[in-house]
Amino acid sequence: MSTESASTSADVVPGAGERAFPTHARAVVIGGGIVGCSVAYHLTTRGWRDVVLLERRHLTSGTTWHAAGLVTQLRATYNMSMLAKYSAELFPELERLTGLGTGFRQTGSILVATTEERWTEVRRQISMARVCGFEVQPIGPREAAEMWPLLDPSGIVGAAFLPGDGVANPTDVTQALAAAARLGGARIFEHTAVTGVLRSGGKVTGVATERGDVASDVVVNCTGMWARELGARSGVTVPLHAAEHFYLITEPVPGLPRDLPVLRSPDDTAYVREDAGKLMVGFFEPGGKPWATHGIPDDAAFVTLPEDWDHIAPYLAMAARRVPILAEIGIRTFFNGPESFTPDDRYILGEAPGLRGYFVAAGFNSVGFQSGGGAGRALADWVVDGHPPIGLWEVDIRRFMPFQGNRRYLHDRTTETLGLLYDMHWPFRQVETARGVRRSPFHDRLAARGACFGELAGWERANWYAPAGVTPGYEYSYGRQNWFAHSAAEHRAVREEVGLFDQTSFGKILVQGRDAERVLNRICTADVAVEPGRIIYTQWLSERGGVEADVTVTRLDERSFLVVTTGTSLVRDLDWLERQIPDGAHAIATDVTAGFAVLSLMGPRSRELLASLTDADLSNAAFPFGTSREIDLGYALVRASRITYVGELGWELYIPTDVATHVYDTIVAAGEAVGLRHAGYHALNSLRIEKAYRHWGHDVTDEDSLLEAGLGFTAAWDKPGGFIGREALLRQRDGGINRRLTVFVLDDPEPLCYHNEPIWRDGELVGRIASGMFGHTIGRSVGLGYVHRAGGSVTVDWLADGCYEIEVAGERFDAAASFRAPYDPTNARVRQ
Ligand SMILES: Cc1cc2nc3c(=O)[nH]c(=O)nc-3n(C[C@H](O)[C@H](O)[C@H](O)COP(=O)(O)OP(=O)(O)OC[C@H]3O[C@@H](n4cnc5c(N)ncnc54)[C@H](O)[C@@H]3O)c2cc1C
C-alpha cells in the first residue's frame, strides 16, 4: 500500500471564519469525501449555516479521489434511482453555483445483455426507468455498436440506452460541493481527525478532535471505510468492510470519441468509459478481496493497493470479448483502491438506534459518487426535519442487527457483495457467504425435511421444502423457478388442510410497567387498553401520519404486553418505542426475540390438530379470533395466539426456547393424521398476498399514511388521549387522499410480478407495484401497489372507472384493480 501517493486535493484555503477552531456547531459532519461534503452543502441549503466539516487529511483523500466517475442513475429500486437522478441534476447546477468545474459530461450510458435472462432483467429495469421518469430506449446490438464503435455486437441480445447518464470528476465535484457548502456558511477543517463522539444520556453532545472538542447536538459520520470503527467507539453498529476494487486505464486510443457513452456489460463483470482519450475499464468481479480486515490504517490517505493481475486477467479477457481492442492495446495504469461494502449491498443512512443525534451516511458499495448528491440531500433533510424525505427503509441504518458489525462476518460477506453488483439480480436470490448465523431451535429438523433456507437479518428461514429426491437449492430465473410447484403444494395444504410454518424470526418485544398501557396506547393507532388475552393489530405512526411500524400487540396481563414485528424491523421498532416512552414513565421495553420460538399452525384442520395435543378449549366461542392465552401442549406450556397472516383458521404458538423441540416433535408426530405439511416463506408470501395483507417495508413504509395504505380501520379515532399521527390523518381524511394501496390481479396467469412494475390506468402511468407474488389459489400474479390520481381523490368509483395494465419486462398485461382482497374478502375462513 502506498499512502499519500497522490494528492488531487488542494488544501482548503481558510476563510475568515475558518481560522479559529470552533467550540460549537449546529451540526458536525465528519469526513470530507463526496458524501460528507454533500451532507454539509445540503444542510446549508436548508438554512443551517452553522455547520462544521472535519476531515482528518485532505478532502477526497479517502475513497472519493479514485472513483471512476460513472454517473448512472438506474439503481435497483425506485427510491435509490431517484437519489442517483438528483445527483446527475446537481452536478451541472454546482458548476453554475460555484463557478467550479465538475467535469460532468452527459454522455449517456449503454447497458448490454448477452443472455436471454439478462435481457429480461434489463427489460424489467427499462420498465422501472419509465416509472422514475428517466429517458430510456431499448436498442438492438446493431444500434449499440453504432453508438459504441469499438463494441463487438455479436452475442448481444439487447441493450438499454439512457441518454441522461454520464461521467464527472469525483475530486472536482467534491471540491465544488465543499465550495458551495462554504458559500452557505459551513466551515471546513482539514487535518482534523475526530477521535471520538461525545454523548450524554443517550444523546450526542459533540465530538472530540485533536484540536479540541466541538459541542453539537448533531453529528454525521461520513467517514467511508472508517465509519465502522468510529461508530463502534460510540456503540453504533455500522456494518461495512473495505474491499479492493479495480480498474485499468489503457494507452491512448486514436480517434476515441470524447462523448462515448459509458458502456456497462454486467455479464462480462465490466464497465468501460472514455477517459482523456483512453479507455477506462472497471470490474465487479466475483470473489472480491476484502481489505484491512483488522482496521483501516490510521495514516491511510490517497491509498493505492498493489496490482493483482492474476485476479483481474480472466475478467479483462471477458471484457475484451465485448470490446476487442482491450486485448490489443497496452495498459497504462492498473488501479486498485479500497471501497466499503455492506452485508446487503445497500448503503447506510440515518440516525443510529439508541443514540439521538448520531447520523450515519456511509458504506456506498461503489456507487457513492453517483449516489452521494442524493444521499447527502436525503440525510440533510433527515437531520433538519427529523425524518427521511422519502421512504428510505432499504438503506436505513436501523435494518441492521448488532451482530452484523462482526468483523469476521463482514469479511466473509464482502467476498460476495462486490460481485453481486453486476451479477444477475434474480428474484429470491439468496446470499451464499456468512450464512448460518441465527437459527431457530428447529433448524436441523427442518433441514432433515428438505428445507431450502433463505436469509433474513441473519436468520436462516425455510423458504420452501424439497420433496424426497429433490435437491433443496435454488435454480434462479425470472420465470417460474424450480421450487414453484413445491411451494404451490405447500400453499394448497394451508388452504385445504393444515401447514406448519417456523416463524421464530419474528421480532418480539416485551413492554412492561405500570405505564405500559398508557405509553402503548399513545403510540398505537388501535386501542390496546383491552382485556388481557386480546391481540390487537395496529400501526405506529409518525406525527405526519406515516406508518412507522406494523405490529401486533398482545396484552399478557395488567402490566405487560407482547409486541410482535417482522424480523428485520426489530431494531427499528424497539428504537421507535423507546423514543416514545416519556421521561419518568414506568414502561420498559425488552427484546425477547431469542427467548421464544414460534410455530404457526395454519389451515382449516389446525383446530383438529391442536386439539389433539391440548386440554384447552379451542372452540370459536372459547378461543375466538384475536385472542391469546397459555395452553398446555404435549408436556409443555406455550402461548397460543389465534391470528393469521395467511387468511385461514390458525394459531401462532410462542414457545419458550427450552421446550421448543419437544413441542415441534409433538406437533409433527400428531400431524401425520391430519395431513400436516411443512410450509415455507414463499408459500406464506403467496398466501398473504391473496389476502392483501400488507408487508411493512414493501407495501407500507413511513412514506405512506395509514389511510393511503388502506389501514384506516385500525385507527381508534376517539380513544382517550388519541394517538401519534391522529391529527395529520384527520386532515387527510377530510381532504381526501390522492394515492391508495390497491390490489391488482393479472388476467393472464403467465407473467410474474415481483416489485417496481409500472401500473397503467387508461394508458397513463399511475404507480408501481410495491410487492408481487403468484397467488396459487387464484392462479394468477397478485401485486400490491399505490395508484396516484393527479388533482383528485382516489375513490372506489374512480378506481372502478379505469382499465388497468401492469407492465412486466416491457409488456403490458390487463389487470383487475380493487381495494379488497381477491381471496376471502369477508374473512369468513379466518373466523370459522
Ligand atoms: C476503484 C473505484 C472506482 C469507483 N468508481 C465509482 C464510480 O464510478 N461511481 C460511483 O458512484 N462510485 C464509485 N466508487 C465508489 C465511490 O468512490 C465511493 O462510494 C465514495 O467515494 C464514498 O465516498 P465517502 O464520502 O462515503 O467516503 P470517502 O471518500 O472515503 O470519505 C471519507 C472521509 O472521511 C475521512 N475520515 C475518516 N475518519 C475520520 C475521522 N476520524 N475524522 C475526520 N475525518 C475522517 C477520510 O479521511 C475520508 O476523506 C468507486 C470506488 C473505487 C474504489
Write the layout of secondary structure elements.
Elements: E1 27-30, H1 34-45, E2 51-54, E3 70-71, H2 78-98, E4 109-113, H3 116-132, E5 137-139, H4 141-147, E6 158-162, E7 166-167, H5 170-183, E8 187-189, E9 194-200, E10 203-209, E11 212-215, E12 219-221, H6 227-232, E13 241-250, E14 262-265, E15 270-275, E16 278-283, E17 289-290, H7 309-322, H8 325-328, E18 331-341, E19 348-351, E20 358-362, H9 368-385, H10 407-420, H11 443-448, E21 451-456, E22 459-465, H12 484-496, E23 498-502, E24 507-512, H13 516-523, E25 535-541, E26 547-557, E27 560-565, H14 570-580, E28 588-591, E29 596-602, H15 606-611, E30 628-633, E31 636-641, E32 650-656, H16 660-671, E33 676-678, H17 681-690, H18 726-735, E34 739-746, E35 758-761, E36 764-775, E37 780-788, H19 796-801, E38 804-808, E39 811-818
Parallel strand pairs: 1-2, 1-12, 2-8, 4-14, 12-20, 23-33
Antiparallel strand pairs: 3-7, 4-6, 5-6, 9-10, 10-11, 13-16, 13-17, 13-18, 14-15, 15-16, 19-20, 21-22, 23-29, 24-27, 24-28, 25-26, 26-27, 29-32, 30-31, 31-32, 34-37, 34-39, 35-36, 35-38, 36-37, 38-39
The chain binds flavin-adenine dinucleotide.
Residues 30-36, 54-57, 61-64, 66-70, 193-194, 222-226, 230, 245, 247, 282, 337, 339, 362, 364, 366-370 line the site of flavin-adenine dinucleotide (FAD).
